[in-house]
Write a structure and sequence with these properties.
- The complex is a heterotrimer of chains A (368), B (465) and C (394).
- Chain A is an alpha/beta fold and 368 residues long.
- Chain A has 11 helices and 16 strands.
- The radius of gyration of chain A is 21 Å and the shape is globular.
- Chain C folds into 2 domains: 107 residues, Urease, subunit C, domain 1, CATH 2.30.40.10; 274 residues, TIM Barrel, CATH 3.20.20.140.
- Chain C contains 11 helices and 17 strands.
- In chain C, strand 12, helix 7 and strand 13 form a beta-alpha-beta unit.
- The longest helix of chain C has 17 residues.
- Classes of the chains: A alpha/beta (368), B alpha/beta (465), C alpha/beta (394).
- The interface between A and B is medium-sized, with 33 and 30 residues.
């Protein structure tokens, strides 16, 4: 009893060994799939969630947290910590590139991201490439790569066309991409994408680009998500038929300045999974939450809004089995909020990654 | 918060300045006439409306449970817990009723090229640049999100731009045609000497306007004195007329008898005082210097803000408002003491921006409020559609330390008070105009939906339609 | 008489119930210009499932028939130029026969609606003419389902390109340090022709022609039409002489169509002897078109008088019916002008099996006019494309 009080009163920063199990108790636990468990205990052991229940666990120290627990956000398009290293400008296709090499764990920008609740990040290629390589899943708080070659990123929008580099036309782009896929040797990333082993993220912005991307995906048996697609509401049936999800870019992203609220609502209605991106270079996690709040004020329910930043986002990144929800077996990446996580008036109290407390608002002062 | 000196002891000069404005400035004269017309148009006849909610937020921090409001002819005519709906009245029910949101720094409803023009001067009017048709999609979005009124300004490219207006999102209709005059001190990339130079130029422009107003006031005083003297002299002459005529007739007779010419005594009167040459720009700016309309100055960086505060100290009557104010924390005490409100425009972006590492970001609102500065939240006059997210900005500010009541004040009663509309909008009271929102929950909560928007007594949006 | 009575009864019966899918209609017109030379008076057209089922002249209007004073076939714009701009042409090489104009289509562009509402029901789209040989063009219906497959009309394959100053415009000298692929030939008109000739020769002499060269060989043999933009006389000559040269070399007989042949009227003899067809561009406002070509409203008449097969085009900027009216002012009869915007372009593009005239069995692409077509006071008041109403006359 005394030990648990002391530990609760003096949270430790930085990586500490999380072998010993402990439990967090909060008034609301947002699982990340739409459910909210009231007055629950989340038991954490070895960096993973062991259980979520209303019954007090025995034999583990309990930390009372004042607020709502939610899964850490999945940042689906973070380029800020890459320092520009994720964009290969001399060639349009580098399908075998492993983008985990662009990850700089010492970048000062990661800290701000973690402080706003982002625990897992997908680092994709820049938007100017056609086959930019394979995105990696990294944990900015722990400073390590969680999964290499997680998602194949493809650029099928106008930004992938050059004005003085080949290809300059959509016809050239699709001819080029078709050749790459046809010539991909077995075991290579593009071949793995064709068999559906590795999901793809295809950037397409205008409706025509999205329609073509869908045709291409269906023709080659690709699974995964469209990136961009702000006018997805005009193509909901086609997206659903192709079995793809949609990842909306941040409002400030140049070509995607069209408002995604209508599209998000249409996709939610058609039960097509979608996600928002944090993209700290342009809007940051707060911008992502504002995008979600704008959708909520137009009718999207809170559970779906949270899912778009946690559970569904993790599934699109291919790590739905291990991240994105608070459930037994998943990584203990949690954020303690002062109120509902989707409400903009809530603030981050503390952030846990892999079971370790990696950020606490009190220690850093009011400015966070 | 209203710590600037009361206006009662300034009233005589204020009245004179206002008379001056009407007499001399054609534009202002038109404005006064159109303002009266606006007043009538605002409260045009509409069908009755009965609004009912479990909680009515009368003003930030003050709410009443289980209340109904009766809206007639554009105004709230009755408030009570058991009002009956009159014949033919439409009834709308919700969880919460509050005053509609007002964006104190917006370009929604204004034609884009006028908004960013650099060819405006202090006599240009924002009401000449309204564009309800070209911006109808943006305005519809605003009606749905609950931002029903905006203070708009034009001429983002000019150092001192024209007279702004407060307009309703519904049809971009003006509510107050002369809301404020704006200036900006935010040219990036200049060296410090040039930056201070900007402030000095603004100060001398203000000084020029003040001198013009003083000259005009002096002219009027002198004219009055001269007219009084003339009247006195005329009275004298009329009284002495008979006597003088007799004396003159006698002199004429004497002259005739003596055979000499009569030397007439010439009467000389003082010349009529000449008015100063009419300058519409100075006359317009003089209204801000004299405190008749607020003066909004867009300034972000510390150097300009410090200089600005220093050079504007002599203009005691001017009602200054700082817009942007990213570095205003450094001067919070002076701002609080002089009663200068700050319109913050938080934007979700990576830290840095105009003031680099010192940018407090969304926490600015909370920090300023805790130091006693009146905080308003605006969308920043860059993009018309940004006004739609005003309630989200306020909510995010709460998430970064701003008091909930202060946040609601920052987007309702605050803008109304600062821009002289507190007797019309901004709070929910009997007699005020009916600019209200019927919500499904707390106004700042992200899951709240706007069930109905009422603008000037008219239902301009209803969820589910 | 009896047959027409039975037919009219059947027509009336079928016309009184309009199925819900919106592709079946009955249309009554005081006059139907079929574009084949036949004109039907007081005719009833039955449209079913998107096709013209029957045309019955000399019949009264039924109660729920759409009515118009005149009905013609939907217009076919042989050079509509509604592509996605620079992203429709692959400029990394000057000769790209394999690029399809399909990839340069943006079916969400508002230009399609404009074309449809002004009576253009089919449009031929090519890649943007920045390359010498840009790629394969495609005929697209201007309204309907927003999928490229649904809107494309299979026709004769056409290899599109340009001869003149346009293809060399962005290129600059290849000497010194090349900084982009635009540092290449051709930089002059001679160079443009050189590119054409070079690609034809290399294709003809290749031991194992690749896919691109196979297309060029088909073009030489006349299996694939060659659709070349050539505004000025010198460029039209270049194209025609190139065709004759290829024939002399024994490579085959090309099927040549000159697009935007504004100065085709100057030397009609060479067009006649080589059986070359011409697509006329919109009449320029100040007398001269791009490349300084001189053109007036009389050009169409000159081509007609010389027996050259020609069609009119709008280039996406000018209304095709206005161009037809101007050609009439230049001397064409109404029938000839109508043919030049309907059946002739359909024949040149090889889609006359489906569109181009009002005949039973063809697609229901029809225009309902409020008077004699191409008059200044007349405009389309109703447009059907594939049986769907693109412009509602009701």
């Amino acid at each position: 009893m005394l030990i648990s009080c002391l530990i609760a009163a003096a949270p430790l920063l930085g990586a500490t060994a999380a072998e010993d199990a402990y439990a967090l108790r909060a008034s609301h636990v947002h699982v990340g799939d739409g459910q909210v468990v009231l007055d629950a205990f989340v038991v954490i052991e070895d960096g993973a969630v062991k259980s979520v229940s209303n019954n007090a666990p025995r034999g583990v120290r309990v930390v009372e947290v004042d607020g709502h627990i939610a899964p850490g956000f999945i940042g689906l398009r973070e380029t800020i910590g890459a320092g520009g290293e994720n964009e290969e400008r001399t060639r349009k296709s580098t399908p075998n590139a492993d983008l985990s090499f662009a990850f700089d764990p010492t970048s000062p920008y990661w800290h701000g991201l973690v402080a706003e609740g982002v625990t897992t990040v997908l680092m994709p290629a820049g938007s100017s490439q056609i086959a930019g390589g394979q995105a990696a899943i990294v944990s900015p708080a722990a400073g390590k790569v969680l999964k290499r070659n997680a998602v194949v990123t493809l650029g099928l929008s106008r930004s992938s066309l050059g004005s003085s580099t080949a290809p300059t036309s959509y016809a050239g782009l699709y001819a080029h991409l078709g050749e790459q896929f046809a010539a991909a040797p077995e075991g290579s990333p593009l071949a793995a994408a064709k068999t559906g082993e590795v999901p793809v993220m295809m950037r397409a912005v205008t409706r025509t680009e999205v329609a073509r991307a869908l045709d291409f995906a269906v023709a080659h048996g690709l699974k995964g998500a469209l990136l961009g697609a702000p006018e997805a509401d005009d193509l909901v049936e086609e997206i659903k038929a192709a079995g793809l999800s949609v990842v909306f870019e941040s409002k400030a992203a140049p070509a995607s300045s069209k408002d995604v609220v209508k599209s998000a609502l249409a996709l939610a209605k058609a039960e097509v999974p979608f996600a928002f991106t944090s993209d700290a270079a342009s809007q940051g996690p707060l911008g992502m939450r504002m995008q979600a709040a704008a959708c909520m004020r137009a009718g999207l329910d809170a559970g779906a809004a949270l899912r778009a930043m946690t559970g569904d986002a993790a599934r699109i990144a291919g790590v739905g089995e291990t991240h994105g929800t608070i459930a037994p077996g998943r990584a203990a990446d949690l954020v303690v909020w002062s109120g509902p996580p989707t409400d903009l008036t809530s603030r981050v109290h503390s952030v846990y990654a892999g079971g370790n407390l990696v950020h606490s608002a009190h220690a850093h002062g009011a400015h966070q | 918060m209203r710590s600037h000196s009361s206006r009662s002891n300034r009233r005589p000069s204020l009245r004179r300045l206002r008379n001056l404005g009407i007499a001399l400035t054609v534009g202002a004269g038109l404005a006064a006439a159109s303002q009266a017309a606006q007043d009538e148009a605002e409260t045009a006849a509409t069908s009755d409306l009965l609004l009912r909610a479990n909680k009515v937020i009368v003003s930030p921090g003050k709410s009443v449970d289980n209340m109904s409001l009766l809206v007639r002819d554009g105004r709230i005519v009755a408030m009570g817990s058991d009002l009956a709906a009159p014949e033919g009245a439409q009834t709308i029910e919700g969880e919460v009723i509050c005053a509609a949101f007002i964006d104190p720094w917006s370009v929604a409803g204004v034609d884009a090229s006028s908004a960013r023009s650099d060819r405006v001067d202090t006599a240009s009017r924002a009401t000449d640049a309204l564009d309800p048709y070209g911006q109808d999609e943006v305005l519809d979005d605003l009606l749905e999100s609950g931002v029903l009124m905006m203070r708009v300004e034009i001429g983002r490219g000019a150092a001192v731009s024209g007279v702004g207006a407060v307009i309703r999102a519904d049809g971009a209709a003006p509510v107050l045609t002369d809301a404020a005059i704006s200036a900006r001190l935010d040219s990036p990339g200049l060296d410090p000497v040039s930056r201070v130079g900007q402030v000095d130029r603004l100060a001398s422009t203000l000084g020029g306007a003040k001198k013009y107003a003083d000259d005009v006031a002096a002219y009027e005083r002198d004219l009055k004195v001269w007219e009084e003297e003339i009247a006195e002299k005329e009275e004298e002459l009329t009284e002495d007329f008979k006597k003088a005529k007799k004396a003159r007739d006698k002199k004429v007779k004497e002259a005739e008898e003596e055979g000499e010419e009569l030397k007439e005594k010439k009467y000389k009167e003082d010349k009529r005082p000449r008015p100063p040459k009419f300058d519409p720009k100075k006359a317009s700016l003089a209204r801000a210097v004299g405190g008749e309309v607020p003066m909004v100055i867009h300034v972000e960086e510390a150097l300009e803000l410090r200089e600005l505060l220093r050079v504007t100290r002599p203009f005691t009557r001017m009602r200054m408002v700082i817009a942007g104010g990213r570095s205003s924390l450094l001067f919070a005490d002076e701002l609080a003491e002089r009663g200068i409100p700050v319109i913050v425009t938080p934007a979700p972006s990576s830290p840095g921006g105009a003031v680099g590492e010192m940018d407090p970001g969304f926490a600015l609102a909370g920090e300023l409020a805790s130091r006693g500065v009146e905080v308003l939240i605006g969308s920043g006059a860059t993009s018309p559609v940004a006004s739609r997210d005003l309630p989200l900005l306020a909510a995010a500010a709460v998430g970064h330390g701003l008091d909930r009541e202060a946040a609601l004040h920052a987007i309702t009663a605050g803008p109304a008070r600062v821009f002289d509309l507190q007797s019309k909008v901004g709070t929910v009271r009997r007699g005020l105009h009916a600019d209200l929102l019927v919500l499904s929950g707390d106004p700042l909560s992200s899951s709240t939906r706007v069930l109905a928007s009422i603008s000037g007594g008219k239902v301009v949006h209803q969820a589910g339609n | 008489m009896l047959t027409s009575l039975i037919l009219s009864a059947a027509a009336a019966a079928s016309g009184s119930s309009v199925p819900a899918d919106g592709t079946s209609w009955t249309i009554h017109a005081d006059k139907v210009y079929t574009s084949t030379g036949k004109v039907h008076e007081s005719a009833l057209i039955v449209v079913e499932g998107g096709k013209i089922r029957a045309i019955t002249p000399g019949v009264e209007a039924t109660r729920d028939a759409l009515h118009a004073p005149v009905v013609t076939a939907g217009m076919v714009d042989a050079s509509a130029r509604l592509n996605s701009g620079t992203s429709s042409v692959e400029q990394s090489s000057e000769v790209t026969p394999l690029v399809s104009a399909e990839f340069g289509l943006d079916l969400y562009s508002p230009g399609w609606g404009r074309l449809a509402r002004t009576g253009v029901t089919s449009a031929f789209i090519t890649p943007l003419n920045q390359n010498c040989v840009g790629g394969m063009g495609t005929v697209v219906k201007t309204a309907g389902d927003r999928s490229i497959k649904a809107r494309t009309v299979e026709g004769a394959p056409m290899l599109c390109g340009a001869i003149g100053s346009q293809p060399s415009q962005r290129n600059s000298s290849a000497f010194g340090r090349p900084t982009s692929f635009f540092n290449r030939r051709p930089t002059t008109r001679m160079g443009v022709e050189w590119e054409w000739r070079k690609s034809f020769f290399e294709a003809a002499q290749a031991k194992e022609p690749d896919d691109a060269q196979k297309v060029l060989l088909d073009a030489l043999a006349g299996k694939v039409g060659v659709f070349v933009q050539a505004w000025a006389t010198q460029d039209i000559r270049t194209a025609v002489f190139l065709k004759e040269e290829m024939a002399r070399e024994g490579f085959g007989e090309m099927r040549l169509v000159i697009d935007a042949g504004a100065e085709a009227w100057r030397e009609p003899a060479m067009l006649v002897r080589t059986n070359t067809s011409v697509i006329l561009p919109p009449v320029p406002a100040q007398g001269r078109t791009t490349d300084g070509a001189l053109m007036s409203v009389e050009c169409a008449r000159v081509l007609r008088d010389n027996g050259i097969s020609f069609a009119l085009s709008g280039h996406g900027a000018s209304r095709l019916d206005i161009q037809a009216g101007l050609a009439m002012r230049g001397g064409l009869t109404r029938e000839q002008a109508l043919r030049a915007v309907t059946l002739t372009p359909a024949q040149l593009l090889g889609v006359d099996g489906r569109v181009g005239s009002v005949e039973a069995g063809k697609d229901a692409d029809l225009i309902l006019w409020n008077g004699e077509p191409f008059e200044a006071t007349t405009r389309p008041v109703g447009v059907l494309i594939g049986g769907h109403l693109a412009l509602d006359p009701r």
